[in-house]
C-alpha cells in the first residue's frame, strides 16, 4: 500500500531547515498546515515577479532556478541545497522550472507566527519560562528568513550563509565583544539577551546604551566600516548565538544587501539626505537640506526616519555609511550609501582635502591653499605634538560629552518611570493603611 503523500512529505520536511530543530509537538501542529503539490516536467513552480507569500520546500525531483531564461542553479531533492526554502525572496526574483516530475511542500509565510501564538494560548497556564525559551530558540531561523536583510540575499548566498553559521555559547557576564577590538564576526542571537555599552574615552565611565535579545543581530558596524569595535557587548543571561566570520559576511551578505548612489543621482524632492558625521563636523560644511543624526545616535533616533520613502546616507568617505545603511535596512527602511561620501560632492571642503592647523587657543583653522604661496615650506603647515594632543583630548571630551547627554536622557526617562511607580506604591500604601485602620477599629 502506497504511503500517504502528506505523511511522506512530513518525513522529508522533518530533515529540512528550520524543521530539523523544531520541537516534536510544534512540528505536529504544523503538520496540519502542510500543502503537498506536484508539478510535471517543464512546468513552473513560480515565475519571476510572482507575489505568492509561501515557503516552498523541494521533496522530490529537480528544479532549475532561472533568470531571463538563463539557468542559475539546479536544486535536487535530498541535497544540501534543498534543505532550505526555494528562492525565498518576495516577490520572486527568479523563476523555478521543474526539470522532471517534482513534488514540493508549500507553507504560508505567517505559519510560524501562528504556531507561536497558538502554543502560547494553549499552554498559557502551564508553560514555564524554560519552555518559552525553547520555543523562541526553535523559531529563530524562521524569523531570520523573514528579516529584511536576509530577504535581500540571493538563494545561493542564503544557503551558504546558513551552512556557514557557527553556534557559540556564552554564560551570564561573559564579554562577547570588547570595545576597541578589530571586527571578526557578525552575530545572530538565538537565545538570551546582551547589553551594549560604550566608553566615550579611556577616562570616561562605561555607559550602557541598550539591550538586544533573540532574534536580534549585531556586530556589523566594525565589519562594514573597517573601524575597531565601538561598543562592548556583555551577556546579561546565558546565551546561544550563531556567528559568521568577517570574510563570508562581506562576500555573502554585504555585497547583495547594500545599494549605492552617486551624488548626481540624488533627487532631493523624493529623498532624505541623512548626514551621520559628528555635529561639529556637520556644522562646518554639509549638503544643503540634509539632516544630521550622528552615527552613534542613530539607533536611538531611527523612529524619526520611519516615514521617509528613501534615505541617502552621508559620511566623510562613504565607509561608515555602509554600517548605517545596513542598520536602516534591518529596520525596514529604504536606504542608500552616498558613494564616496562628502569627498564626492562638488565644491565640498572634503573634495579639496582641506587641512586644518591649530591656533594659539587650540582651535582648528582651515588652510586655504588657493591663497597660500606654493613655495611655502611644508614644516610651516605641520601641527606641533602639543597641539595634536590638544586636538585629541578635545575630540575625546566632545565624544564623552555627547555620551553623557545620551546617558542623561536615559536617566531622565528612568526617573519618570520610577516616579510613576512611586505614585502607584503610595496609593497602594494609603489603601493598606485604611484597611488596617478599619481592622483596628473593629477590634
Task: Give, in spatial order, the strands making up the sheet with the most strands.
Answer: 16-20-19-17-18
Mean pLDDT: 78
Low-confidence parts: 114-135, 353-391
Stated plainly, the CATH topology of the domain at 5-134 is called Jelly Rolls
> What's the CATH class of the domain at 5-134, please?
Mainly Beta
Amount of helix: 25-40%
Number of helices: 12
Class per helix and strand makeup: alpha+beta
Main sheet specs? 5 strands, parallel
Q: Kindly estimate the percentage of residues that lie in beta strands according to DSSP.
A: 15-25%
Structure summary, number of beta strands: 22
**Large-scale geometry:** globular
Indicate the CATH architecture of the domain at 5-134: Sandwich
CATH superfamily of the domain at 5-134: Jelly Rolls
Distance between the termini: 82 Å
Q: What Rg do the Cα atoms give?
A: 28 Å
Describe the structure.
The protein has 443 residues and is of the alpha+beta class. Helix content is 36%, strand content 23%. Strand 11 (193-198) and strand 12 form a beta hairpin. Helix 6 packs antiparallel against helix 8. The radius of gyration is 28 Å and the shape is globular. Among the domains are: 5-134, Sandwich (Jelly Rolls); 165-256, Jelly Rolls (Sandwich); 260-344, Rhodanese-like domain (Oxidized Rhodanese, domain 1, 3-Layer(aba) Sandwich), CATH 3.40.250.
Short summary of the structure?
By secondary structure, the chain is an alpha+beta fold. The protein is built from 12 helices and 22 strands.
